[in-house]
Input
Amino acid sequence: MATNYVTCPNCQSSNPGNFTTCTNCGTMLPFNQGPMQPMGGQNRPLPGADKKLAAGLCGILLGGLGIHKFILGYQQEGIIYLGMFGAALIISIITCGIGSILFLVPSVMGLIEGIIYLTKSDEEFVQTYIVNKKPWF
Output
């Protein structure tokens, strides 16, 4: 019987299919499901892939508030976004609108992250943001 191998998403090295971490860099390996065909006609979604669309759209539309971070379970990063938004609001009020340009910082960051989320495949998204817990870009 042939041995199945899994490619590490981080260093691209080949690892035996029954390993959970890469032998080269220690990165968590994706679950090897064998052949790339759904078994028994069932197409099972990846756990956590359902958050991709919600996080991506919230990143694009409400990026400055950090809602997309809360959707992915990153509370600390979401609070950082809210803090940046609150600081921009206070500076904007104090400077009578001159400091309102600061609203662009968290908004553009959220827009970029939302686009990144939506352009990744479901497998990449789950591996990067759900399994490996990569909080920034």
In short: The chain has two domains: 1-33, 51-131.
